[in-house]
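Notes taken during the Thursday session

The instructor put the following on the board and asked us to keep it in front of us for the whole hour. The protein is HIG1 domain-containing protein. We were told not to look anything up and to reason only from what is written here. First, the residues (86 in total):
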Amino acid sequence: MDGVQAWVSKHKLGTIGGIWAAAVGGSFAANNRSSTPALKPSLRLIHARMHAQAITLAVLSGAAIYHHFHDQMEANRQPIGGLTGR
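Then, after some discussion, the predicted structure tokens were revealed:
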């Protein structure tokens, strides 16, 4: 798990772009399999893009919350015995 976190930390934009592309593809595929054949392909693509944007916002929000609490925990850590190591 640490290796995955390190890779994602190094390649943030690529990770977000990959999640967005996977969400567009998944949503478009799900919309194509639905029982509403009356929708035009352009409308299905618009819906897929909207779903992908919602997923991407959720992922970005989760990442921001994670970083906020992680940084807060790091700032609150105090050295053992009050020594600063100097």
